[in-house]
Amino acid sequence: MLVALRTVSSMAIQKRIALITGASVGIGAATARSLNELGFSLILVARRQEKLDSLNKELGGGHHVITCDVTDHAQMTQALNELPPYFQNIDVLVNNAGLALGLEPGYETKWEHWETMIQTNCIALAFLTRQILPEMVGRNKGHIINIGSIAGTYAYKGGNVYGASKAFVEHFTLGLRADLIGTSIKVTNLEPGLIGGTEFSDVRYEGDQNKVGATYENCQPMRPEDIAETISWLVQQPPHLNVNRMELMPVCQAPGGVLVHKN
Ligand code: NDP
Ligand code: 8X3
């Protein structure tokens, strides 16, 4: 009896594993905090190591940090190949790393901005999913949560490639669900609107604080915690239920029609 107890206490108890991209700040970091509360062991992915390390420390340590640019396939593949055994069976993949760059009309935007958005929001997300999905299928277990956007559904001026990249994420999500019919694997596209308290607008406006401030002034946007709590709810749903798409907006925002130009 004593021997059996000793053996159990010396084995690491396997918790559920969640990999979160873009975990250094914003929605990703908030999601890490929420899933940590739920008892997940986390794989935290982003480029800024000091932020990931300090988050890991804040969460009590023991999570796995991957400092990596998600658009670098070689780096990502190596990091996945080098996952410690405890972290190899990923139960929840939160494809969150993403960005908008600029709000110029499509005839003025920088081509490099378009390329970076497509590389990050579409190609990196598809690549990572392709790397992780076979293992989920092998175990017939897993949940992929993609962070899309209302910009993937509602076109707005200056949204051009950002919106198109999020439309890709939405359609990719629904296509995967179709591929996975007959399995127990869940796939969800989470489509938030305006969220404050992240670096999203600092990145979009390249640090122009007037534009960042104007985005959130005189309204109450959602908080990253609102999205994290939604993800927390999603991963606690019973096995028979899949949320295909979920659109979230703050009360101060609403979808609003099409444009008419009059002379
Ligand atoms: P933040 O800018 O605060 O966070 C973005 C995260 O993505 C950071 O952790 C950043 O980490 C990471 N990231 C970006 N590019 C790369 C890369 N090439 N390699 C690795 N990590 C990368 O933005 P949000 O938290 O607001 O946005 C998260 C997601 O939510 C995005 O997909 C965004 O499109 C979406 N979204 C945001 C909304 C909003 O209003 N904020 C609304 C709807 C959707 P690091 O820089 O350390 O690499
Ligand atoms: C971010 C929301 O409205 O700025 O995806 O495109 S919005």
Can you tell me about this structure?
- This protein has 263 residues and is of the alpha/beta class.
- Mean pLDDT is 96; it is low at 1-10.
- It has a single domain (15-239), classed as NAD(P)-binding Rossmann-like Domain (Rossmann fold), CATH 3.40.50.
- Helix 3 links the parallel strand 2 and strand 3.
- Helix 5 runs parallel beside helix 6.
- The chain is built from nine helices and seven strands.
- It is 43% helix and 13% strand.
- Bound molecules: NADPH dihydro-nicotinamide-adenine-dinucleotide phosphate and 2-hydroxyethylsulfonic acid.
- Residues 149-151, 159, 193-194 line the site of 2-hydroxyethylsulfonic acid.
CATH architecture group name = 3-Layer(aba) Sandwich
| Helix coverage percent | 40-55%
**Mean pLDDT across every amino acid position:** 96
CATH class: Alpha Beta
CATH superfamily: NAD(P)-binding Rossmann-like Domain
The unreliable regions are: 1-10
Might you state the CATH topology name? Rossmann fold
Terminal residue distance: 87 Å
Number of H- or I-type helical stretches: 9
For the biggest sheet, the summary is:
7 strands, parallel
Number of strands: 7
Q: Given the C-alpha coordinates, what overall shape results?
A: globular
- Name the helix and strand elements from N-terminus to C-terminus, one letter apiece: HEHEHEHEHEHEHHHE
Portion of residues in beta strands equals 5-15%
Q: Largest beta sheet: what is the strand line-up?
A: 3-2-1-4-5-6-7
Bound molecules: NADPH dihydro-nicotinamide-adenine-dinucleotide phosphate, 2-hydroxyethylsulfonic acid
